[in-house]
Amino acid sequence: MSDQFRNPNSDLGIIALNSCTDIAKLVDKTIVESRRARGENFDRNGEEVTSYLIPVEQTRFQNGEGKIRLSQTVRGKNIYILADVSNYGVTYKMYGKEVNMGPDEHLQDIKRVLSAMNGRANKVTVVMPLLYASRQHKKKARESLDCAMALQDLEKLGVDEIVTFDAHDPTIQNAIPLVSFLNIYPTLDILKHFLTTENWLFDPKEKLVVISPDTGAMDRAIYYANVLGLDIGLFYKRRDHSRIVNGKNPIVQHEYIGRDIKGMNVLIVDDMIASGGSVFDVAAELRVRGAKKIFVASTFAFFTEGRGKFDEKYEQGIIDKVFSTNLNFVPEEIKAAEWFSQADLSTYMAMFIDTLAQEKSVSKLLDATSGIRSFLLEHGFDPDARLRDEALKENVEALANKAK
Q1: Contact 346, 30 (CB under 8 A)
Q2: DSSP E strands, 142-264
Q3: Is 352 within the bounds of a domain?
Q4: Is 158 part of a structural domain of the chain?
Q5: Which of 98, 175, 228, 396 has the greatest number of CB atoms lying within 10 Å of its CB?
Q6: Is the pTM higher than 0.85?
Q7: Is residue 348 within 8 Å of residue 189, measured between CB atoms?
Q8: What angle, 0 to 180 degrees and rounded to 10, lies between the N-to-C axes of helices 277-288 and 308-315?
Q9: Measured between alpha carbons, how far is 227 from 369 in angstroms, rounded to an integer?
Q10: 370, part of any domain
Q11: Which residue range forms the structural domain that includes residue 271?
Q12: What does the pLDDT look like over 59-102, one tens digit per residue?
């Protein structure tokens, strides 16, 4: 057998649970085409591979129990399990009623796959775009640590690596120090999609400012502002700590810290949108302060209370557009909304899986800064020059005011 058939490429296998089939098909297609172009798309026997997907049969019984069966062996393969634990669009019949799957059930299906493999795989990587229970990552009272427990369960079941996107708190990896934990930020693809869609923002006359909706998203907002050469603003939440509503202290007021945004376009950045309540409050405050266009960019968009409120706020002129990704399930009715735009992360995910499967470094893929700057320069937008121009303008105005 020639050397080209002994490379790590031949051992790749992708198991896509029914929560993640759409993006998994795109990922598989990208890897097949990329390897075919490189002349590396062969299995152990030297036969050309047309798909790396391993068919899996997911069964749900009427009492809610389930099982998983693999259609082929995974012996000696490097297996990548893809699962979207937030996909409530997957349903099953239980006691004659249609039931939506929740995160706990999706996590259990990942464990069932690991059990079905029976330790035969060479290496097991779980690709979980949204990290399970990522918002339940630290203890403030007598409460559970769901994310840490789930990660430790996966470690005990033989998982070698976990790949996730924009983890709510990346330090959760400390719960499994001996397991590789790769946290990917999709900033490049989100910004490229946003600026391609709203390319009029490249006009030097247009001013854009990045807004953090709370202190937790500040690091993300600072990064966006730095790579784009923009100013930044911050909202912080004043909460009523004497009451608990739906498991948390209700927000009393959103307070703003930052420059005057009158006549400026605004980009609100965060890791996730749930019901949209906080975004609406922040956007309303920005509108009162004279913001021109208000955009929202989020890695995950759940719309836990449906589309209605977003339609209403869009019609009222509170928000202009919401940008998100296809890393989690979004209903078709929301995809069709005039105010919604979705960035495709399948190619980016495929590049990571393909690179990891070849046991190569992913450092270059993790560095979004150079990619963003190259994209901006291609469109004649120099963030460093804009910062210099803004600083010069402010200095001139300050001297003029002083002279007066």
Answers
A1: yes
A2: 161-165, 180-184, 208-212, 231-239, 251-257
A3: no
A4: yes
A5: 228
A6: yes
A7: yes
A8: 10
A9: 7
A10: no
A11: 187-343+381-389
A12: 999 999 999 999 999 999 999 999 999 999 999 999 999 999 99
